[in-house]
């Protein structure tokens, strides 16, 4: 480790800002990992590492683990510690849409097991950490090599509606996790040491404690060639060895790092504001190869929708402004319509939905119908004679039956509607298909 006191304050500030943007995804991921895998007293606890916790029931406004939750595909959460040995994931044969995406500590995707990528047949897959060099045996349908020792799985499985929950549960219960040694029938290797996990607190993101958490997490994240320079500069500030202590730094170093944090936060907020002008999800989520070195865009994606899927799996779009320029749309001021003309419904290989969220918290909206989304699976939708579809987006229930059948309940205030297209057609990906206007009426 270098001597931070010998580094120029402006260089320290620049490094801290860059590292804050780069590390934002790691800390936001830890925000979820800690209650789910570490804090046994938290109701969100999944049971530790190496187990699935399934949520077969449709999401409601009470579910606030992540922003922009959906009830199209109830979740199956799991976290894996790959330090001692790899893990095996088994999935059943099913025609039901599903995806088990595996993500590294920085939210970059390692790979995808599911309908789009591996098909509807039963399969067995190995997930190995960066340090594994042993023999994993035969009989695997695929191997996913992670860049970090801790990985997460946020599985999604299609749900047709409340009456479909028992059938969904039968599929979820066949998602199996086991250590490689258990799969091979060999003795388990020595367990990795159990670290002292820092207790998550919301305020750490904007204080020097950010780097205490980052220092801890980097112990599970070997240096990648593309990030070697930043990691070297962080090491000069004492971050990365596992014993970073801000109080031990000279005052001028602490002040420069704090200014860098503020710079990083400001840059993220500017980029997020610019991204709010876009209607699609291209480039915000994906594998390490897809994301490349654009850490700012990755941070914006994490802020907009943590664990969002890459667009080839699920395309996300929405409205930040209505057809009259009102930003954001506000159901206390207007009722709205969304009309998909004949032949212009979202082209999806699997299915599509439109989900309502209250702003600014981006959570589901309580309503008397308990309808949080609407789409091609919604029973009773009324289509026009030519096949077009009009949705009614408003706070109060429409007076007539036809409009009620096509009603997407909105909060009495600002809102966002997000379209999800699962298995989008190429016309969606290349922009030939576009969203209709959100029109006040």
From TrEMBL:
<dbReference type="InterPro" id="IPR010679">
    <property type="entry name" value="DUF1254"/>
</dbReference>
<feature type="domain" description="DUF1254">
    <location>
        <begin position="51"/>
        <end position="179"/>
    </location>
</feature>
<dbReference type="Pfam" id="PF06742">
    <property type="entry name" value="DUF1214"/>
</dbReference>
<dbReference type="Pfam" id="PF06863">
    <property type="entry name" value="DUF1254"/>
</dbReference>
<dbReference type="InterPro" id="IPR010621">
    <property type="entry name" value="DUF1214"/>
</dbReference>
<protein>
    <recommendedName>
        <fullName>DUF1254 domain-containing protein</fullName>
    </recommendedName>
</protein>
<feature type="domain" description="DUF1214">
    <location>
        <begin position="320"/>
        <end position="426"/>
    </location>
</feature>
<dbReference type="InterPro" id="IPR037050">
    <property type="entry name" value="DUF1254_sf"/>
</dbReference>
<dbReference type="InterPro" id="IPR037049">
    <property type="entry name" value="DUF1214_C_sf"/>
</dbReference>
């Amino acid at each position: 480790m270098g001597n931070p006191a010998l580094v120029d304050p402006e260089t320290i500030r620049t490094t801290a800002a860059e590292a804050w943007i780069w590390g934002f995804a790691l800390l936001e991921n830890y925000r979820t990992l800690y209650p789910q895998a570490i804090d046994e007293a938290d109701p969100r606890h999944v049971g530790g590492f190496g187990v699935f916790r399934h949520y077969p029931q449709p999401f409601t406004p009470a579910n606030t683990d992540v922003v922009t939750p959906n009830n199209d595909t109830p979740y199956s959460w799991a976290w894996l510690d790959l330090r001692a040995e790899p893990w095996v994931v088994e999935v059943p044969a099913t025609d039901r849409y599903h995806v088990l995406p595996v993500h590294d500590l920085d939210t970059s995707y390692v790979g995808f097991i599911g309908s789009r990528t591996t098909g509807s047949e039963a399969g067995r897959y190995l997930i190995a950490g960066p340090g594994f060099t042993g023999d994993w045996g035969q009989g695997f349908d695929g191997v996913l090599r992670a860049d970090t020792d801790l990985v997460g799985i946020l599985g999604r499985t299609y749900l047709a509606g409340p009456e479909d929950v028992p059938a969904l549960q039968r599929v979820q219960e066949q998602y199996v996790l086991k250590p490689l040694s258990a799969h091979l029938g060999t003795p388990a290797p020595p367990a990795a040491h159990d670290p002292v996990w820092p207790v998550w607190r919301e305020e750490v993101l904007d204080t020097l404690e950010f780097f205490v958490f980052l220092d801890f997490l980097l112990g599970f994240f070997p240096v990648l060639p593309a990030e070697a320079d930043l990691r070297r500069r962080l090491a000069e500030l004492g971050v990365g060895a596992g014993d970073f202590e801000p109080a031990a730094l000279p005052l001028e170093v602490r002040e420069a790092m704090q200014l860098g944090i503020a710079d990083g936060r400001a840059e993220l907020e500017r980029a997020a504001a610019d991204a709010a002008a876009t209607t699609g999800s291209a480039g915000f989520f994906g594998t390490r190869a897809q994301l490349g070195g654009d850490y700012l865009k990755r941070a914006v994606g994490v802020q907009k929708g943590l664990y969002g899927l890459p667009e080839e799996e699920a395309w996300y779009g929405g409205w930040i402004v209505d057809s009259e320029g009102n930003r954001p749309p506000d159901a206390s001021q207007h009722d709205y319509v969304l009309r998909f003309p004949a032949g212009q419904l979202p082209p999806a290989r699997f299915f599509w939905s439109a989900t309502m969220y209250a702003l600014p918290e981006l959570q589901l909206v309580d309503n008397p119908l308990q309808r949080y989304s609407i789409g091609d699976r919604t029973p009773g939708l009324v289509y026009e004679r030519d096949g077009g579809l009009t949705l009614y987006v408003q706070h109060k229930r429409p007076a007539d039956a036809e409009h009620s059948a096509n009603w997407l309940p909105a909060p009495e205030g600002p809102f966002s509607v997000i379209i999800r297209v699962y298995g989008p057609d190429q016309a969606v990906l290349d922009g030939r298909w576009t969203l209709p206007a959100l029109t006040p009426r």
